[in-house]
């Protein structure tokens, strides 16, 4: 059965634009675009049949359907040739039952969607496989795309560089100087990308890459890979489908998502809402967008709307100058995906919260003590979770999912600084190595004493 998808204006301007067209904004209003699917065609297959198909493909070996993204190809990029799919086996990440952590918080049905276990260590792989695959298809069809470029706070550049290298497509990444970790910086370098360090923040890098890829100022042949390119959203929305699939097609009550440029919360909402329209679920979970207090423009907008006693809208938003935060990947004051995120919060009856530096670091460390190893951005979501539980908004019987966006090994400086008490606040769960002599009797006696102290 043939399925179709196209770009359309988020604001509702008329017109359909092919996914093979180099276009990032609506020609009529300059607003964001989104990928729209022919849901009449998709709806001709029953919800039960879709579930059966997705389950048959999940993590199997038939190319390219074993990928967590490409197993849902008809919902993602239906017109792409399988020969041009660039997949590094993204998706299919563990939905971890955080039993001990949940019991400590009083919410035993707590789960962590560990998107950081993907190929490059972050959820960005889910969107980048779709974008780079589409570019490979466009180049095969004769499009003059010389390279693909992004601005990044680290994880986007790693994903783009890896998928570009796998596809044989040149990659340019623009990074804010001294604002990404060593682990994040070495990834695009190792994969052969042209890495540029700019003396600015992420928002400044974003201005440069938008000018570099601006189709109105001439065809540079450089294709934009940031999340304002809604092809990436199509891969990231499969997080929502996969969560429901991993719960045997049941919907959780809450999903908490760290928010910076706001592409991921928008994508996850899109996945749930498409499932609802196609009859696979009856209602979406409530989404919580979790921001660092140092970079919190959507939270401030949400609070303005709450103070006025009405739902959030675009007029509530004002950009901020994002301040340094341990959650460096979401240090963004003027998020590109704002209109989509506002829509996501409204349509899922969602909430926006913020977390201070001490809150995010202590929440991350507390969760680590129960077997996790979370990035600081996941720490933001965990801190917001603790706030919602303390306020009674999330109850003991609720099923809760926290989306973990990146692997903690990308942020070892953050972990070390926390446990060495170098972050400027009390590290409540700090744990430091203990020095001992090499004498067996002395070491054994000291070890027993320390174990007794810990209980």
UniProtKB/TrEMBL annotation:
Modification type N6-(pyridoxal phosphate)lysine: residues: 124
UniProt record, GO biological process: threonine biosynthetic process
EC number from the UniProt entry: 4.2.3.1
Enzyme class, broadest EC rank: lyase
Cofactor: pyridoxal 5'-phosphate
Keyword Lyase annotated: yes
Pfam families xrefs: PALP (PF00291)
Keywords assigned by UniProt, alphabetized: Lyase, Pyridoxal phosphate
Tryptophan synthase beta chain-like PALP domain location: 86-405
InterPro entries for the chain: Cys_Synth/Cystath_Beta-Synth (IPR050214), Thr_synthase-like (IPR004450), TrpB-like_PALP (IPR001926), TrpB-like_PALP_sf (IPR036052)
GO molecular function: threonine synthase activity
SUPFAM superfamilies, sorted: Tryptophan synthase beta subunit-like PLP-dependent enzymes (SSF53686)
Protein's UniProt keywords contain Lyase: yes
NCBIfam families noted in UniProt: thrC
Family according to the record: Belongs to the threonine synthase family.
Record's protein name: Threonine synthase
Organism of derivation: Enhygromyxa salina
């Amino acid at each position: 059965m043939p399925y179709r998808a196209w770009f359309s204006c988020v604001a509702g301007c008329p017109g359909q634009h092919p996914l093979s067209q180099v276009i990032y904004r609506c020609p009529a209003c300059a607003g964001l675009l989104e990928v729209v699917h022919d849901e009449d065609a998709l709806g001709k297959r029953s919800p039960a049949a879709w579930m059966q198909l997705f389950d048959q493909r999940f993590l199997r070996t038939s190319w390219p359907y074993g990928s967590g993204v490409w197993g849902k190809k008809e919902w993602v990029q239906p017109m792409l040739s399988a020969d041009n799919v660039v997949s590094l086996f993204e998706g299919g990440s563990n939905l971890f039952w955080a039993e001990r952590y949940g019991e400590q918080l009083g919410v035993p049905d707590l789960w962590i969607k560990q998107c950081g276990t993907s190929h490059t260590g972050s959820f960005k792989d889910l969107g980048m496989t779709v974008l780079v695959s589409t570019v490979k298809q466009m180049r095969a069809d004769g499009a003059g795309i010389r390279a693909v470029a992004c601005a990044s706070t680290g994880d986007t550049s790693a994903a783009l560089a890896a998928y570009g290298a796998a596809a044989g497509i040149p990659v340019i990444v623009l990074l804010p100087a001294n604002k990404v970790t060593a682990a994040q910086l070495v990834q695009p370098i190792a994969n052969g990308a042209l890495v540029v360090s700019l003396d600015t923040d992420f928002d400044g890098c974003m201005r440069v890459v938008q000018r570099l890829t601006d189709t109105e100022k001439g065809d540079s042949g450089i294709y934009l890979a940031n999340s304002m390119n809604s092809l990436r959203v199509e891969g990231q929305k499969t997080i929502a489908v996969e969560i429901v699939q991993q719960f045997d097609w049941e919907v959780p009550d809450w999903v908490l998502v760290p928010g910076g440029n706001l592409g991921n919360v928008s994508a996850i909402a899109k996945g749930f809402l498409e499932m609802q329209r196609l009859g696979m679920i009856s209602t979406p979970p409530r989404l919580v967008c979790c921001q660092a207090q140092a970079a919190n423009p959507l939270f401030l907008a949400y609070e303005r709307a709450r103070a006025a006693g009405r739902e959030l809208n675009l007029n509530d938003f004002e950009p901020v100058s994002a301040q340094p935060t341990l959650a460096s990947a979401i240090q963004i004051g003027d998020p590109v995906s704002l209109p989509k995120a506002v829509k996501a919060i409204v349509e899922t009856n969602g909430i926006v919260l913020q977390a201070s530096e001490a809150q995010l670091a202590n929440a991350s460390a507390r969760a680590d003590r129960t077997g996790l190893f979370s990035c600081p951005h996941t720490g933001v979501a965990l801190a917001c979770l603790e706030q919602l539980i303390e306020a009674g908004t999330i109850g003991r019987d609720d099923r809760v999912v926290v989306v973990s966006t990146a692997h903690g090994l990308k942020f070892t400086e953050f972990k070390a600084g926390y446990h060495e008490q170098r972050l400027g606040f009390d590290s409540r769960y700090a744990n430091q190595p203990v020095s001992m002599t090499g004498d067996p009797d002395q070491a054994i006696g000291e070890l027993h004493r320390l174990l007794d102290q810990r209980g």
